[in-house]
Structure formats: C-alpha cells, structure tokens
Amino acid sequence: MDTLLQESRVVHTTRAYYARVAGEYFRQKKGLTWPTEGHLKAVCHKLKPNAAVVDLGCGFGNGWPALRQLGVKRYVGVDFCPELIAIAKNRFHKLDFRVGDLRDLGKVLPERFDGFFAINVLQHISKDELGQVAKEIRAILKKGAVGAAVVPHGLQTRLVSMGGDVLLSQEWTLDAVSPHWEAAGFEIVEPTYAEDGVLAITFKAI
After folding, report:
1. How is residue 102 annotated by DSSP?
2. Residue ranges in the chain modelled with pLDDT below 50
3. Distance from chain centroid for Cα 80
4. Closest Cα partner for 153 from 182, 173, 169?
5. How much is the pLDDT for 127?
6. Cβ–Cβ under 8 Å, residues 147 and 25
7. Which SS3 state, helix, strand or coil, does residue 179 take?
C-alpha cells in the first residue's frame, strides 16, 4: 500500500478508536494527571508570567490540573477526537478546547503561544509526518516560546490492533527527532533525557 495512503488510514482508525472508547477511556484514566515534578515543572518555570500555552493532544483535559498547579493561567487544549474534546469541555467549562489535527494546526489556532505541551501524543505521528508536524507547531508559537514533548523511547514502529482499529505506536530516539525539530526552527534544550522507556524533550522556538 502507498505510504501516504497507509498513514491516512492509520490516522483515520486512530481517531475512530478514541471516538469509540472515549467514555470508557475517561472512566479508566480520569484520576490520572501529569506529574508536577521533574521535567514538567522545569519547563513551566521557563514560561513567562501569564504565558499562553497550548496542550496538543489534550484528550479529555487531564493535563490541566497539573499545569494549573504549576502556575499556568492561559490555556488552550487541542485534540483530533471530538468525543474527547466534548468530555474535556464538560469537565472544565471555562477552558478553551478545540478539535484540531497536529498536521494542520493553523486551521484552529490562529493565535501565537508562549509555550506548548505534547505529552504522549507524538507516538501517533509517523516518521514521514514528523517534520510537517514540527513546522505546524513552530508556526503557532512566538519566538522564544518553550515547550515539552514526552514520547516512548526506542527504535520500534508498531501498528497495534485495538478492536479492529489500527493504531500507530512510534518510538523515538533523540538522534532521530532532533533534525526534524531543528529544521522547523527549534533548539533542543535542557532538561532533555531518556529514562525508563520514555524520551522527554524540552524545546525553545528560535
């Protein structure tokens, strides 16, 4: 199958999977939030006061409690699954949640942000798409903006069958991702590390 057609199908089925399981996914995961120590805390401390941040792949908004605790006040959440966004809006009525795709962020994010977070979402982006996604993210950021991504660490590319839907699970190494982000206009800064099967990266938009 043509690579682009295969990727398009995987995007469609990944969205279909989360749409189908959104309610159950929320019931299982609603008690989880991001850790407020370590990498996330270090990135939030780099943000300016009253910084506007965007949470890419926000799901049902489970990152917001941690970001609020770390001082974030201006927040927008984006996810490509309308069903998860509906849950997020129901949980946090006063926050701004939007349906949008990482591959075309300009459609839903005309403004520019001081920071971004992409936590456990880029594993659904293929190697061929990462450069485009990095450029899309850079285009919605101000110069000097900071951000963080957390992805599975490794070299494997897997297509995982979940109840008839096919999900891409792409592991990344720093050597593999750095050229894409640097070409898009990012500098990779500290703290950046690989630990316990996780790659945590901190970015600065230049």
Report:
1. G
2. 1-6, 8
3. 11
4. 173
5. 87
6. no
7. helix
Give residue 167's pLDDT: 73
Q: How far apart are CA 64 and CA 66, in angstroms?
A: 5
Contact 167, 117 (CB under 8 A): no
Specify the DSSP class assigned to residue 201.
Answer: E
* pTM greater than 0.70 (yes/no): yes
- Please provide the DSSP assignment of 104-161 as one string: GGGGT--S-EEEEEEES-GGGS-HHHHHHHHHHHHHTEEEEEEEEEEEEBSS-EEEEE
pLDDT at position 23 = 63
| Predicted pLDDT at 4 | 40
In whole angstroms, how far apart are CA 31 and each of 86, 97, 127? 18, 20, 32
- Angle, CA of 12, 16 and 21, to the nearest 5°: 155
Alpha carbons 101 and 83: distance in angstroms, whole number: 14
H or E segment and range at residue 97: strand 96-99
Which of these, 189, 159, 190, lies nearest to 14 by C-alpha position?
A: 159
Read off the DSSP letter of residue 73: -
Q: What pLDDT shows up at residue 154?
A: 93
* Cβ 165 vs Cβ 12: under 8 Å: no
